[in-house]
């Protein structure tokens, strides 16, 4: 069962509380068609409803959650697990997709309208359970990045992917092969200065390769895959790095990269036109933290998932499945009394390296 691990944790060592009012249904706005664009697709974040203050924590001996909690049974693990229905999970997953597709970006990326509406959806879902949980949105500042780009080599456009936190730039320069895997400063030849470094993926982080290329004087870097698969990018990681500043960075497939390495080894000159369009800035985003009013506060079980998606889509698998899974557990748990308290957290910024 997909959520067996979450459910096993959720049912170990506690027993729990009164159902609240009916679940509020989130009503999506009109869906606006349109593809993601690398710049300005994320509006300056505005809190979608209201910012709630941090919860007032009950005393460590508290075991009730409202005046009706004492009448509720303690948690039965098998019964709790059986109450987690696939249909409810599917409905909540559809809610997240609707939230994403109701925005121009069609995603739930950190700081976007789609993610802010996800935060509101989670807060309102927990509030609908009455006084079983305290819930608040925890604001924090995070570094956001969106990139797009392309690469033409000897007038042939390559299939590429970009890296989060790559700086922007437009470069026309020759490609130069980097020795080994580009994980040490000595791997970069003197001839890489003002050129585009060409190196294989592997062993060290993408960001280390990009920063070392910059330290060696390269104008940009192309990283080709080390296995035969569809080209994919990734993240350089939030700057700075100890090796130095990043250079415009782009990814190509193993087949394309090895082909260029062979051409260079045969003495051919390869001239690349590398373009990266980058939007990097600080923005405000929100975690959502719900904590049971009942249960021993000196023995708190913490359950978490991340609530943000990548820019490419609504993120139903990663990590919408976790988001709705722990929300469903939170709702079903409210039908029981608790021995130990439970804290349920939806984290933002995972897709930008914060978890």
Verbal overview:
With 355 residues, the chain is of the alpha/beta class. Helices cover 24% and strands 26% of the residues. Strands 1, 2, 3, 4, 5, 6, 7, 8, 9, 10 and 11 form an 11-stranded mixed sheet that branches. α7 links the parallel β10 and β11. α3 runs antiparallel to α4 and α3 crosses α7. The longest helix has 18 residues. 44% of the residues are buried. The N terminus is likely disordered.
Summed over residues and divided by their number, the pLDDT gives a mean of: 85
The helix content is 10-25%
Note the beta-strand portion. 25-35%
User: What low-confidence regions span 5 or more consecutive residues with pLDDT below 50?
Assistant: 1-69
One letter per element, helices H and strands E, the order comes to: HHHHEEEEEHEEEHEEHE
Q: Could you describe the largest sheet, including whether it forms a barrel?
A: 11 strands, mixed
- Tally of individual helices: 7
Shape: elongated
Helix-strand makeup class = alpha/beta
Number of strands: 11
From the alpha-carbon coordinates, what is the Rg to the nearest angstrom? 25 Å
Q: In whole angstroms, how far apart are the ends?
A: 25 Å
Salient structural properties:
355 residues, alpha/beta, 11-stranded mixed β-sheet, 11 strands, 26% strand, elongated, disordered N terminus
Quickly describe the structure.
By secondary structure, the protein is α/β, with parallel strands linked by helices. The chain has 7 helices and 11 strands.
